[in-house]
Amino acid sequence: MDAIDNFIQSQEFLSLADSYLYETAINKVDEYFSRLETIPPELSRPAKRNQVKGLQLSSRTCTLFGLKKMASNQLGKAIKRLKDPKNDKSGDTLFWSMVRDLIGNNSTDQFSLTALAKELLERKNNFPETKNEQQKAMARMIEALAIIFFEHFCCHYYLKTQRLPISN
Amino acid sequence: MSNPSILKKLDLYLDQYYEKSIEASKHLRFCFSEKVGKTQIRNLENAAYTAMRFSSIINFIKNQMGKDSQDKPTWTKKLASGVMLGDYLLTQLDEIRQHADTLAGSNADNSLEYRLYLVRGWARQVSTNYFYLLVSGG
Predict the structure, then answer these.
(1) Which chain B residues contact residue A153 at CB under 8 A?
(2) Residues in a beta bridge with B80
């Protein structure tokens, strides 16, 4: 695990955080606000800032499992809040399904922190041999990526909501 | 920063940027009351000095903009040009970032180092002049 910790503190990792992770986080927030324009106006209110703050805090303190669980729970609650069965999307459901996918999705062509962590570990030849060690290494890498990614993501989100005609 | 010729280039750029930093400090003076401004500008300076990543300073400004109330805007207060204070500062930071990246070429490690050097210099110029404006009644 030392090799992973060293990598997380390296200039290479900081550069990745400053460029690729930053740009991806901003694009994801911008995409979200664009998608809101495609759903009925009465459902298109963006996720509230206190929910986003919760996400930011959780990304700093939670384990990978905790973060995934939080996103799934919030998505479940957002789906329950939908009253009209014809409309299966709202600002909240889009937000939390996006967050869940950002942490880890099964699609190989979509960005996710899980896919990026795996790629980094393989590229650095840091992938341990035993399954248990692999899981620990993946969790450590994703947690390090998540803290920075969601800092970019949430700060840009706050800025975007501030620019809305009526901020929430 | 081990390369003296690069250091000279970075310092030269900061000197050339000085007038823009002064403009930024005047805008900060315009948008903040004295009491709030002192804390906020010190926080901005601290963010620049303690940052391990350039994006931390950008995120600091975005975060502060996001916290602003619409009744008493500060970071989101509109300047005479119609641009919000925070957006004005973010534009300056983007110029600084671009210059650092140009100097670094394809070397990502250098880019990060130059970005941080420049942003700390910029923050020093902005905050120093801000506090000078406070005492000189500017």
Answers:
(1) none
(2) none
Q: pTM for this structure?
A: 0.90
Across the interface, which of B66, B70, B108 has its CB nearest the CB of A155? B66
A95 touches A87 (CB < 8 A): no
- How close, in Å, is residue A106 to chain B by CA atoms? 29
Q: How far is A78 from chain B (nearest CA, A)?
A: 23
Amino acid at B68: D
A94 in Cβ contact with A39 (< 8 Å): yes
Supply the pLDDT for residue A167: 47
**Averaged pLDDT, A56-84:** 89
Kindly list the residues from chain B whose CB atom is less than 8 angstroms away from the CB atom of residue A158: 62-63, 65-67
Chain A residues close to B63, C-beta within 8 Å: 155, 158
Residue A121 and residue A141 in contact, taking contact as beta carbons nearer than 8 Å: yes
- Using 50, 70 and 90 to split pLDDT, how confident is the model at B44? very high
How would residue B17 be classed by pLDDT, with cut points 50, 70 and 90? very high
Q: What ipTM was predicted for this assembly?
A: 0.87
Q: Where are the domains of chain A?
A: 2-163
* Chain A residues closer than 8 Å to B91 by CB: none
Q: How confident is the model at residue B106 (pLDDT cuts 50, 70, 90)?
A: confident
What is the mean pLDDT of the segment spanning A29-47? 91
Structure tokens at A165: 């005609």
Tokens of B40: 């906020």
Residue A162 to residue B111, Cβ atoms within 8 A:
no
> For chain A, give me the number of helices (H) and strands (E)?
8, 0
A49 touches chain B (CB under 8 A): yes
